Structures are given as C-alpha cells and as structure tokens.
C-alpha cells in the first residue's frame, strides 16, 4: 500500500465513511518492503499473530544483515533460524541484545516477551535429536510460552519416559522429536490427553532414509491426537505448538 492510498484509507476512517473493522481488514493486506533480494513482510503479525521469521540457510551474511536492519525498525523481537555462529557474530556487531543457541541454530534479537502462557513439553527420543528439539523449544519460548524439556527417553529405554509422567500431566501440548524408527510420538499419543506434535529427524542409519522412515511411522500412527510436521522442522513444530497453547490469542 503506497502513502497516498494509506492517507485515503485513514481519512475515510476519520470522516466516518469507512468502519474501523473494514480499515483493519485492509491494513492486514499491506504489502511488503522490497529489498530486491528479499521482500520483507512487516505486517505478517497483523494477519497471523506472529511476525515474519528469517530462514538463514542459503542466504548470505550481507542479505541477512540487511533484512534484520529493516525488520528492526518495526519489530521489538526478531527470530532467525538455521543460523550458523558466523552469522550470529556478524549480527552481534550491530545488536547488543542478541542471543544465540548453538544446538538449535537460532538467533534471537531484542527482548523476549514474558513466558507466561500454559506449558509446552518438548521431548526427544535421543540425545542426537536435541538440535531439532531446541529449535522447537526456543521458537515456542520466543512466542511467550513456558517450555519444559525432556531429552533421551526413547523406546529403547521406555522406562525413562515413565519417570516424567508428572511433566506430561502438566503440559498443554507435547512436541515429540525422534529419528530412527520414530516411535516416540505414538507412545505419547497413547499416554497423554493433549495434542502431540510429532517431529521426525534425519537421525538414523541407512534405512532411516534421512528421516523418511521416521516420518512414515509418525504419519501411520494409530494413536489419536498426533499431528506431524516435516523432517527436522523444529521451527514449524514450535510455531504450531504455540498456536495450540494460546488459542484465541491475537
């Protein structure tokens, strides 16, 4: 939306010709800021409740710095996923309030909102699944959710999971992260009375097919209440878990 069109819209609201609700609907379709190499969607939070997130993989450091610079003008918190340490170090030169997670490969710039929403539980089958789990957990935390973590409680030693039934009972949604055969979400789906978001990882030997076997196991689960995101998509799981945990929040 250009300046002239925006002025007309605001004048119409001021003069009473356009209801506020109609103007809000118009504002939700505001376009992006065109940087040529990227089109920054400043108004995604208006439409979806959460601002745009930077996916760093495949982008140059200069491109990422440019996107962050423009997003910083309108967002108090910026989340960047699949970011290596060299990207973090480049951004830290210009941003003092910045956090980096090595395992989750996530950068958070700016202040995080208070984590005061109902609890999300992130569980991994193995230690090797922690990087994807941390991507999910940190994404959920940045969106204001309380998050508990339980690592390395897969089916090869299922008694380890049963020792955490108190945390399972307290949670409003579970993110279950597993590679190999991907059986953990089915177990949790049979134990818990809350939604389970299954995350297959590419962890495993040859017949794991870089996570395909875990993905198919999760898709074929007979346990009700289990939904599945893509292989290694911790961000997608963390984002969706926040939506489930905060229904109706705008």
Shape: globular
- How many extended strands? 11
**Run of helices and strands:** HHEEHEHEHEEEHEHHEHEHEH
How much is the radius of gyration in Å? 20 Å
User: What can be said about the biggest beta sheet?
Assistant: 5 strands, parallel
Distance between the termini: 23 Å
Number of domains: 2
Q: What is the mean predicted local confidence, pLDDT?
A: 88
Write a concise keyword list for the protein shown above.
250 residues, alpha/beta, Rossmann fold, 2 domains, four-stranded mixed beta sheet, 38% helix, globular
Write the SSE topology.
Elements: H1 3-14, H2 20-27, E1 33-34, E2 39-40, H3 44-48, E3 54-55, H4 61-72, E4 77-81, H5 85-92, E5 98-101, E6 106-110, E7 117-124, H6 130-142, E8 145-150, H7 159-162, H8 165-170, E9 173-178, H9 184-191, E10 196-200, H10 212-219, E11 226-228, H11 234-245
Parallel strand pairs: 3-4, 7-8, 7-9, 9-10, 10-11
Antiparallel strand pairs: 1-2, 4-6, 5-6
Helix pairs in contact: 4-5, 6-11
Short description:
The protein is of the alpha/beta class. The chain has helices at residues 3-14, 20-27, 44-48, 61-72, 85-92, 130-142, 159-162, 165-170, 184-191, 212-219, 234-245, and strands spanning 33-34, 39-40, 54-55, 77-81, 98-101, 106-110, 117-124, 145-150, 173-178, 196-200, 226-228.
Model description:
This protein is an alpha/beta fold. It has two domains: 21-110, no CATH class; 117-245, Rossmann fold, CATH 3.40.50.1970. Helices cover 38% and strands 19% of the residues. It has helices at residues 3-14, 20-27, 44-48, 61-72, 85-92, 130-142, 159-162, 165-170, 184-191, 212-219, 234-245, and strands at 33-34, 39-40, 54-55, 77-81, 98-101, 106-110, 117-124, 145-150, 173-178, 196-200, 226-228. It has a five-stranded parallel beta sheet, with helices on both faces. Strands 3-4-6-5 form a four-stranded mixed beta sheet, sandwiched between helices. Strands 1-2 form a two-stranded antiparallel sheet. α6 runs parallel beside α11. The model has no long low-confidence stretch (mean pLDDT 88).
């Amino acid at each position: 939306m250009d300046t002239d069109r925006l002025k007309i819209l605001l004048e119409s609201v001021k003069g009473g010709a356009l209801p506020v609700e109609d103007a809000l609907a118009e504002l939700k379709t505001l376009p992006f800021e065109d940087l040529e190499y990227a089109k920054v969607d400043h108004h995604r939070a208006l439409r979806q409740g959460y601002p745009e997130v930077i996916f760093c993989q495949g982008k140059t450091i200069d491109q990422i710095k440019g996107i962050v610079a423009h997003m910083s003008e309108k967002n108090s918190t910026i989340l960047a996923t699949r970011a290596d340490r060299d990207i973090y170090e480049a951004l830290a030169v210009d941003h003092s309030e910045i956090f980096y997670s090595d395992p989750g490969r996530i950068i958070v710039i700016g202040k995080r909102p208070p984590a005061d929403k109902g609890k999300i539980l992130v569980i991994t089958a193995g230690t090797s699944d922690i990087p994807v789990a941390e991507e999910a957990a940190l994404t959920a935390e940045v969106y204001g959710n309380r998050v508990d973590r339980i690592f390395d409680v897969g089916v090869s030693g299922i008694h380890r999971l049963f020792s955490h039934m108190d945390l399972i009972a307290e949670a409003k949604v579970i993110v279950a992260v597993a590679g190999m055969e991907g059986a953990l979400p089915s177990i949790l789906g049979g134990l818990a009375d809350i939604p389970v978001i299954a995350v297959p990882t590419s962890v495993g030997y040859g017949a794991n097919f870089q996570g395909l076997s875990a993905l198919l196991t999760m898709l074929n689960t007979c346990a009700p209440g289990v939904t599945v995101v893509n292989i290694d998509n911790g961000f997608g799981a963390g984002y969706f878990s926040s939506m489930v945990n905060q229904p109706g929040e705008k």
